[in-house]
């Protein structure tokens, strides 16, 4: 059985491990630098990014995480994990937070608003559908979510999301800086750059495991397992028609 590390400092690491299990893949909790030596790929889950950064500093994880990225091992960041992987982040709390970096993009923390402004949206995902099959859309779950404002030339955009009509930018300078970027009322929410994958939403909170399968195929050590294990475990129904485990407003 393939083994994937899941950073387990805080946030939705259990949900990622459960999604991996449905694909026949073992997810192991990572809390210390030396534990990274036992895995070939890593998921950094969603959660409270400032809290996660403080815990990572406490456990001296940042040097090991940066080395993991620079070695070319696959790393997937969801929501807060996306912020960690970005080279630049805006909208942070006073003093900012330490980043792992490696993903050539600028992320705006809490772009879509507070916890009560969480929502779901149907995203067009042609690359995901091409590689993993299934529908051309994916139901993204956005919880106090970031967004990607700009990307470098080597970054592949995998999904965009409409900007809610009630989106209010924090300052006049943000309005001026982002006016052109948001002219089409869409913002980037999923990207890939080489061994790095980033999503602003939470695939682990849905029954659709295609993003997890897509990530598994990024690692040569687990590609064969991933390609042959997209089946129900113990007879569990993994139909894409199943509803997400949480119920949020639907934003079209």
Outline the structure in words:
The chain has 252 residues and is α/β, with parallel strands linked by helices. Mean pLDDT is 82; it is low at 168-173 and 221-252. It has helices at 13-22, 49-58, 62-70, 80-85, 126-132, 172-178, 210-217, 223-228, and strands at residues 3-7, 26-30, 42-44, 75-78, 86-90, 103-108, 119-124, 137-142, 147-151, 156-162, 186-193, 196-199. It has a seven-stranded mixed sheet. A three-stranded mixed sheet has the order 5-6-9. The termini are far apart. It has eight helices and twelve strands. The protein is globular. It holds the Pfam family SNO. InterPro entries: Class_I_gatase-like, PdxT/SNO, PdxT/SNO_CS. L-glutamine binds at residues 47-49, 109, 143-144. The active site is at 79 (nucleophile), 202 (charge relay system), 204 (charge relay system).
Overall mean pLDDT stands at 82
How many separate helices? Answer: 8
Can you give the helix content as a percent range? 25-40%
Strand order of the largest sheet: 2-1-3-4-12-11-10
Low-confidence stretches: 168-173, 221-252
CATH H level: which superfamily? Class I glutamine amidotransferase (GATase) domain
CATH architecture: 3-Layer(aba) Sandwich
Query: Kindly, what is the distance between the CA atoms of the first and last residues, rounded to a whole number of angstroms?
Result: 39 Å
Number of strands: 12
Q: Please, how many domains?
A: 1
């Amino acid at each position: 059985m393939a083994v994937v590390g899941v950073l387990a400092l805080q946030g939705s690491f259990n949900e990622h491990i459960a999604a991996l299990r449905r694909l026949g893949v073992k997810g192991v909790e990572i809390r210390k630098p030396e534990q990274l030596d036992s895995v070939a790929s890593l998921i950094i889950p969603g959660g409270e990014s400032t809290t996660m950064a403080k815990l990572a500093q406490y456990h001296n994880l940042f040097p090991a995480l940066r080395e993991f990225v620079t070695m070319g091992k696959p790393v997937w960041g969801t929501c807060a994990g996306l912020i960690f992987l970005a080279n630049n982040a805006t909208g942070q709390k006073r003093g900012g937070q330490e980043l792992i970096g490696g993903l050539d993009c600028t992320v705006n923390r809490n772009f879509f608003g507070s916890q009560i402004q969480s929502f779901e949206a149907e995203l067009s995902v042609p690359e995901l559908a091409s590689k993993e099959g299934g529908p051309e859309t994916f139901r993204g779950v956005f919880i106090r979510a970031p967004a990607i404002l700009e990307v470098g030339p080597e970054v592949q955009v995998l999904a965009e999301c409409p900007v809610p009509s009630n989106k209010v930018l924090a300052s006049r300078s943000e309005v001026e800086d982002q006016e052109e970027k948001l002219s089409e009322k869409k913002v980037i929410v999923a990207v890939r750059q080489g061994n790095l994958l980033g999503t602003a939403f939470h695939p682990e909170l849905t029954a659709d495991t295609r993003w997890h399968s897509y990530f598994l195929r990024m690692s040569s050590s687990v590609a064969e397992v991933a390609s042959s294990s997209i089946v129900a475990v113990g007879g569990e129904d993994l139909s894409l028609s199943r509803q997400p485990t949480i119920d949020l407003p639907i934003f079209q």
